[in-house]
Design goal:
Isopropylmalate Dehydrogenase; 333 residues; 12 helices; 11-stranded mixed β-sheet; alpha/beta
């Protein structure tokens, strides 16, 4: 049992919980037998969903009376008490009973409760919210996605190191190319903080990543850069724009192939290619934002994803722990 990755799971957060969460755990276990799940939530409901479907050697249920609601403000969630499934799941990581924590619940609440319970990694001032994005050649790590609206050059340098460490923990055999998201590729473009960060990263040798300068919004999916760094305001706008564009393209394609006999015939003839395209843009494959900079990793699953999406975020948890993310950040900071 000691070689299993111990994942603390808030089973009560997100749409359709706890069923979606438990179904995700069961599906994840079919694919990866090296995780142990410490599940926080309503024991009666969870037992009814997991009993006879998962060996008891691979999970433990900790009953919690209260839950953080999706409508709670971060302050209300913190005041709701230490007996919520979210708080106790995070606390288990703090006590080193588990290696990593995941929740599909209220994002603002998760960030605040995590910051109240966990310490910052030494020499890091602010944590960042990061996620995986698809590109033409594989995956990119993008951060910050909304945890910090304003950032200093020191913060952006830290984000570069943390993002590269995350990428290395997920893809240990690769050295990432890291770039700053900017309004142009020329050195003179951008605000003073971006330009100052460029100078620091350009002059500072880092064995953890290759610095590739600036990247523009229209190059995010090219795959030449593996770690994309920005402040939380810019990163969040870029994320929502990319998600909206992907949804627009898939919705329009569906209309084209349904609106006429010729369209339906084209869909049948191109079924294999369309299926590949659909899978490539499936948001469930990229589910799981990572809150990094704290001394224990915290993963946020999308509240609206289904059990497949949650299962994928559990696999991200496993890779982060196996890849020794926190120590990688400590070494490189």
């Amino acid at each position: 049992m000691s070689d299993l990755t111990k994942i603390a799971v808030d089973a009560m957060g997100g749409d359709g919980s706890p069923k979606k969460i438990i179904d995700g755990i069961i599906h994840s276990h079919k694919l990866n037998k090296k995780n142990f799940f410490k599940i926080f939530g309503n024991k009666i409901k969870i037992n009814g969903l997991i009993q006879d479907k998962l060996n008891k050697d691979f999970y433990e249920i900790i009953h919690t009376e209260n839950v953080v609601k999706s409508t709670d403000s971060p302050l209300e969630a913190a005041k709701r008490g230490r007996d919520t499934s979210m708080w106790l799941a995070i606390e288990s990581v703090k006590k080193k009973e588990t290696d990593i924590v995941i929740s599909a619940g209220n994002t603002g609440a998760l960030l605040v409760i995590a910051k109240l319970n966990l310490k910052m990694i030494e020499n890091i001032d602010k944590p960042a919210l990061s996620a995986l994005w698809p590109n033409k050649k594989g995956m990119s790590v993008v951060l910050d996605l909304g945890a910090n609206i304003e950032c200093s050059s020191k913060n952006l340098v830290d984000f570069s190191i943390m993002g590269a460490s995350l990428y290395k923990s997920l893809y240990p055999n690769e050295t990432p190319n890291t770039a700053l998201l900017n309004i142009g590729s020329e050195e003179l473009k951008g605000n003073e903080i971006i330009k100052e960060t460029f100078q620091i990263l350009n002059e500072k040798k880092n064995n953890n990543f290759n610095f590739s300068g600036y990247i523009e919004g229209n190059e995010l999916m090219d795959g030449n850069v593996n770690v994309i760094v920005s402040d939380g305001f810019t990163g969040n706008v870029a994320l929502k724009t990319a998600e909206g564009t992907a949804n627009f393209i898939t919705d329009e394609l569906k209309k084209v192939f349904k609106d006429s006999i010729l369209g339906k015939l084209s869909a049948i003839l191109n079924f294999s290619n369309l299926n590949k395209f659909k899978k490539r843009l499936d948001p469930r494959l990229y589910n799981g934002a990572i809150f990094i900079g704290l001394d224990s990793p915290v993963v946020k699953s999308h509240g609206g994803t289904d059990f497949i999406g949650f299962s994928n975020s559990l696999e991200v948890c496993s890779k982060i722990v196996k890849g020794d993310l926190i120590n990688k950040i400590r070494e490189n900071i």
